[in-house]
Amino acid sequence: MAKENKMNADVVIIGAGMAGAHLARSLREKGVDVLMLEAGDRRSRGDFLKIFYENPVKGPQAPYPSIPSAPHPEDNGYADFYVQDKDTLNENLFIGAYLRIFGGTSWHWTGFADRLRPEDFRMKSLYGVAEDWPIDYNTVVPYYLTAEKRWGVAGDPNHVWGAPRDGAPYEMPPIPATFLDKQVTKALEKMGLHSAVFSHARNSEIYDNRPVCCGNNTCVPICPIAAKYDASVDAQKAEDEGARVEVNALVTFIESDKDGKITRVKVQKPDGSTFWVGGKVFALCGHAIENPRLLLNSKQEYAREGIANSTDNVGRYLLTQANQDTTGLTPDPVFPYRGPQQTSGLVERRDGEFRSKVAAIGTSFMNNGWSGNSDAINMAHDLIDKGVVGQDLPRQINEQVSRHLRLNSSAEVLPDYNNRLELSDQMDTAGIPKPKITFKMDDYTKQGLKVGLDINLEVFKNMGATEVSHNDPYLSNAIIGGTTRMGTNPETSVVNSDLVTHDHDNLYIIGSSAHITMPVNAPSLTIAALAIRAADHMEKKLAEIP
C-alpha cells in the first residue's frame, strides 16, 4: 500500500537524462517549482571509471551496472533484458542500450552535436516516404541555439552537415581530423567523394569549467575527464538552481482522474516501499523504452489500455537505425585509438532525392579499431594461443593494431506501425513487466546500407587494405526512438506538436520517443532543444491552472 503523497511539485519530471535535465533547468530559470524523479542512482565519474577499468567487458554499458531496483540492459545481455519473438531474435535482434542513472544515457553517447536537417522534418512531402513532423526546422532553431550554448559545441562553420546556421557561430573551433581521417580522405578523393569533421559536444578549448579533450578514446562508454558533455551537467545545474531531485525513485504507475487529468504518480524505492507524488503538470522523460513501458503499465478505470493510449499508439512506430561495419588491415599504420572515437565522416549519401528509394546513410571513420575498445585484448588472446610471448607479444600487437581500420555506416529505418514495444508476461527484478519487442528491418534500410558497403569496399581497395571483411546489417544499440510519437492526428500519434499527450492535457512526453523519424544526424540535440521549448509551453500552461 503506497503512502499518501510524500512530495508535491508544480512540475514533476520523470527521468534525469537529456530531456529531463534540460526541461528542469529551463523551468527553474523561470522560477517554476520542479521535482525530478530518477529511477537509478547517482555516482561520481571516478566510481564509474573504476567499474569500467575492472570490467573485462568493454561495451557501452560497462561502467554502469544495472541495479535490481531500476534495471537496464547490460552488455552481452540484451536478449535477456528484452523479450523478443523468434523472428526478431534471429534476424533483427533489438539491442537498444540506455541507462537509468542521474544524467541518463548521455553518459555513454558519442557526443555528436548536429541538428536535424530541414529535410529531415519533411520526409513525406519531399521524398514520399515515412511521415512529416508536425513542426519544422525553423520552429526548433531558437532552441537549438540555447542547447548548443549549454553544451558547448565544437564545429566547423564551413561544413554544417545540411543544417543551416544563418551565421550563428559554433561555441568552439572544431575537433581536428585525425591522421586516420586524413588517410581515408585521400582514398575518397580518388572516388570524387568528400569528408568533413563532425560537430561535437566535446571541448576543443576550456568551456563551462570543463577541460579540453585529450584523446582518451573511450568516449563510448565514458569520458574520463568530462571534456565530453553529458546531461548530468544540466541536471546538476537544475538542482543547484533549486530543482529537487529524488534518485532511486522508480515511477511504476501514473494515475488519471475521470476527466483525464494526471493527478499523481506512484514511486517505488529500492527497499520496496512506495509513496505517491502529486503535481499540476507531469513530464515523462524516460527515453523510448521506459516511456511507453510506464504508460502501458498504468492501466486503470479511466485509462483501460494504459495512460495516453486510447488509440493504441503507445509503444508503436519503434525506431532505431541499422549499422554495418567494414574492416581491413591497411598496408601502413593509420594509428587508431588516438583522439575521440569518431571525428570525421563521409559527406555524401546523408540526404538527397535518393531517399525516395533507399535510406540515407551516415558513414563514420572509426578511430577505435575493429572492435571498439578491445582490439589489443582480442589480439593478445589470439597471439598467446599461437605461442607468442615476451617482448614479441606487444611488438606484434602494436604492429597490427596500428593498421586496423573500420568504417561504420548507419542507415535510417522507416517508421512502421508493427514495430513496437509491448509488456511481456515476464517480470524484471523491480517487479515490472519486461519490454517485449517486435521489429523488422525494412528493405529501404538494407538497400541504403548496400550503397554504403560498396563505397566502403572501394575505399579499402584504394588504400591497398588486406583482410577486408564486413558483417551483416544489424540494429543500432545507440539509437532508440518512436513509441510515443508526436502528430496532429490522435489516431496515429500520442502527443501533439507541443509534446502534450492527446488524452491528458497536463502530461508531456519529451525525448526521442516523440520523434517521427530517426535520420542519420543524431537525435540528442533535438531532444534537448524540444525539452527547452516544452518549458515555454509549460510556463503558459501553469499560468492557466488555479
From TrEMBL:
Q: Which domain of life is it from?
A: Bacteria
Q: Which Pfam families match?
A: FAD_binding_3 (PF01494), GMC_oxred_C (PF05199)
Which cofactors go with this protein? FAD
Record-annotated Glucose-methanol-choline oxidoreductase C-terminal domain positions: 416-531
| Stretch forming the signal peptide | none
Domain FAD-binding intervals: 9-43
Record keywords: FAD, Flavoprotein, Oxidoreductase
Hey, which family's this protein in? Belongs to the GMC oxidoreductase family.
- What is the official name of this protein in its record? GMC oxidoreductase
Q: Native species of this protein?
A: Kiloniella antarctica
